[in-house]
Design a protein that fits this description.
There is one protein chain. It contains 13 helices and no strands. With about 375 residues, the chain is mostly helical. The protein has 2 domains: about 110 residues; about 170 residues, Alpha Horseshoe (Serine Threonine Protein Phosphatase 5, Tetratricopeptide repeat), CATH 1.25.40. Helix 3 packs across helix 4 and helix 7 runs antiparallel to helix 8. It is rod-shaped and about 205 Å long. Keywords: Coiled coil, Membrane, Transmembrane, Transmembrane helix.
Length: about 375
């Protein structure tokens, strides 16, 4: 832009100079003509010629000089015009490019605007359609969900019924197995290894099924089989394992005590005697006046009496036995007398135990007589 301005200024001054030249030519005076003539015609070239020819020559020389300057100026103007034309072309191209960029920018803006409008339009249509589809799907899913919930409930009910039936079947089988084992043990008609395995398996099944009510009964059968085979350590471990976890049967403690009494009777094991008395006391805590436990305590005290080496030891044995008789006879119920007499009578049939019963008859004849009377009355009452 600055270059163009400079060129225009130059053209302006050039034209101005040209105009001044023309005016100067028209206003030439004689002195100027003479000066020009002198410039045109040198001193050495002076030749006398007629005035008419001289004027013509002078005029030709001057015209030639002026024409030369005019031609130079025209050339200069042509160059200026060419430059201006080139600049115009350049400016035109630049303007065209600017215009093109503006048009393209406008087109791009219009396209973007139309694209946004089109996108918003189609997005609106798509979103509307998606909402309809979503509502339809949600409706179908809700129906399917309700149907599935009903099916699941039906399946769960069937499963619960099946579980209940299976549980009943398992309980039935457990009860059958328990009754079968109990019968064999009571009748003493069983194989030790097979029966012990069946009992331990049954106990595990009952624990897995969480049938806690049956555990004390199975433990009671285990104490009986351990007593039959004089397994004192096993019965002690069994009592220790379940004590505090279940409510033992009174007979379980009696069976455990019998294993200790057996060792005390055969091997004079003082420790086993003490443990046997502990088990018998626990049995009596569960069933006060339990005749079997009372009878076994009397037998232990008679063992003490017969093995005593000093009168003091014998007196203690008599004192302990008398305490048991007092509890039995002071009981309003005849059950303790009946059960105690029954147990003593049964054990007296064993050759190795008969001496303990005989010693009781010797030392406590009156007490045994009173017990027998109460036992007879009780027997009559339960037979009515």
């Amino acid at each position: 832009m600055k270059l163009k301005l400079i060129i225009i200024i130059c053209v302006f001054f050039g034209l101005k100079s040209f105009c001044q030249t023309v005016d100067s030519t028209q206003m030439l005076n004689e002195d100027l003509i003479t000066k020009k003539v002198k410039e045109v015609i040198g001193e050495n070239e002076y030749i006398r010629v007629p005035l008419t020819n001289f004027e013509n020559d002078i005029q030709s020389k001057i015209s030639a000089t002026i024409n030369k300057r005019i031609n130079n100026l025209i050339g200069f103007l042509v160059a200026i015009i060419g430059i201006l034309s080139a600049l115009s072309i350049i400016q035109s191209n630049r303007s065209r490019n600017i215009l093109k960029e503006q048009v393209l920018a406008q087109i791009s803006a219009d396209l973007n605007s139309k694209t946004v409008e089109s996108r918003e339009f189609f997005e609106g249509i798509i979103n509307s359609r998606l909402e309809d589809i979503e509502k339809q799907l949600l409706g179908k899913l809700e129906l399917q969900y309700k149907s599935n919930v009903e099916n699941i409930k039906n399946v769960e009910n069937q499963l619960e019924q099946s579980k209940s039936q299976i549980a009943k079947a398992e309980d039935y089988l457990i009860n059958i197995e328990f009754e079968s084992l109990k019968k064999m043990l009571r009748e003493r008609k069983y194989d030790y290894a097979i029966t012990l395995k069946r009992l331990t398996t049954l106990l595990k099944d009952v624990e897995d099924k969480k049938r806690k009510a049956l555990i004390p009964d199975i433990v009671d059968l285990l104490t009986l089989i351990y007593y039959d085979y004089k397994n004192y350590n096993e019965v002690t471990d069994l009592i220790n394992k379940y004590e505090g976890k279940i409510k033992f049967k009174s007979s379980s403690y009696v069976n455990a005590a019998l294993t200790g009494i057996y060792d005390y009777h055969n091997y004079n094991s003082v420790n086993q005697r003490a443990q046997a008395l502990i088990y018998l006391d626990k049995s009596l805590e569960l069933i006060q006046g339990y005749g079997s436990a009372l009878a076994l305590k009397l037998e232990i005290f008679m063992m003490d009496y017969l093995r005593a080496e000093e009168d003091k030891q014998k007196d203690q044995a008599i004192k302990d036995a008398k305490s048991v008789f007092n509890k039995i006879l002071k009981s309003e119920s005849g059950a303790p007398s009946y059960e105690t007499i029954s147990r003593l009578t049964r054990d007296s049939k064993l050759a190795s135990y008969k001496k303990y019963f005989d010693k009781l008859n010797e030392l406590f004849a009156e007490e045994l007589k009173q017990m027998q009377l109460k036992a007879d009355e009780y027997s009559k009452s339960i037979k009515k």
